[in-house]
Amino acid sequence: MKLGIIGKPQCGKTTVFNAAAGQQEAVGDYSQAVHRAVIKVPDERPFRVAELVKPKKVTPAEIEFLDAPGFTGKGKESKGLEVTPELHQMDAFIMVVDAFSPEANPETDIQNLIDEMIILDQVMVETNINKRERRIKLTGDKSEIRELELLKRCLTVLEEERPLIDMELAEEDARLLRGFMFLSQKPLLIVLNIPEEALGEAEDIAQKHSHFVDVGKRELAVMCGKIEMELVSLEEEERQAFLNELGIKTPAVQQVIQKSYALLGLISFFTANENEVRAWPVSQGIIAVKAAGVVHSDMERGFIRAEVVRFDDYMEYKTSAALKAAGRMRLEGKEYVVEDGDVIQFRFNV
Asked: Which string of DSSP letters, residue by residue, matches 79-97?
């Protein structure tokens, strides 16, 4: 799963990227450079399972971040905007917003950036409508009628200055739209980048802008990118001392990563053996046989059953024998809906 970090120039995009990725890319230079990193999702559970299993390695869940060139932030005033194809391919966006500079106006910036995505989508929708109408007129082929009508519905929403993610879509319509990779159809995590002196007001700042939140569509986080970037360059002992001095229990960047993960509709299940304990990111609602295929295609093809233990039960009973004796190890079939934190052993035969 991939998330694109977007925002106006000088909003702190690359600072937030560095904090999440533990990197030191140049910041503040109006660079059009693109930065990429695979980010480990903060989650203590695979490491706690590993304390019992003693594997050779532990592999947390991972997502990919892409720090994209800054948007103009001009919204409806924008002309000739261009967004790279790679940005269209992102599964969701992290929108970094300047809430630290003297001239900062987060409310306006957030709305302008959303407007900008709406405009870009509107241009794409109009282009695709024109193409299909011409093709239908020339060939008489009616196979694209449904898609054409759906695009016209999208155009109506965009002309109302609403993002496409706010549309109510049947599953078939949602599937048809996925191929267009519209910007305003993607989930959005808004990150307010505040100054160090405002750290004590983070909760109040989040509450002030909470009207942007819409569960499963838009989320909000508050962080001081400058402090978080400094933290990743410190040794563990120094980092903890710094956090204590600032009165911070958990680095905000961890919350940003976790909220990004949840916004993508992802959960984690775990596999555990003497070689590796691993967290597997999967879409919420995935069934056991498809989860097996995430681990290995042979497991899906030859699926027999899944031996499932809840994470809390795994921690409490500690061994397979104790889990079985307590009736905490369940045998599940192909259609079992995997839950977050399940520790699963797949039985298969090919």
From this structure: -S----HHHHT-SEEEEEE
CB atoms within 10 A of CB 19: 27
pLDDT in tens, 268-286: 999 999 999 999 999 999 9
CA geometry: angle 74, 79, 81, nearest 5 deg: 85
If you average pLDDT over each of 59-73, 86-100, 174-188, 296-310, which comes out highest? 296-310
Q: What is the CATH number of domain 2-104+187-263?
A: 3.40.50.300
Instruction: Tally the residues of the chain.
Output: 350
Residue 155's Cβ-count burial label (10 Å; 0-12, 13-18, 19+) is: middle
Specify the fold of 108-184.
DNA polymerase; domain 1 (1.10.150)
- The CATH superfamily holding the domain 285-348 is Beta-grasp domain (3.10.20.30)
> Confidence band (pLDDT; 50, 70, 90) for 78?
low
Cα–Cα distance measured from residue 236 to residue 344, given in angstroms and rounded to the nearest whole number: 32
For residue 319, the surrounding DSSP H or E stretch is none
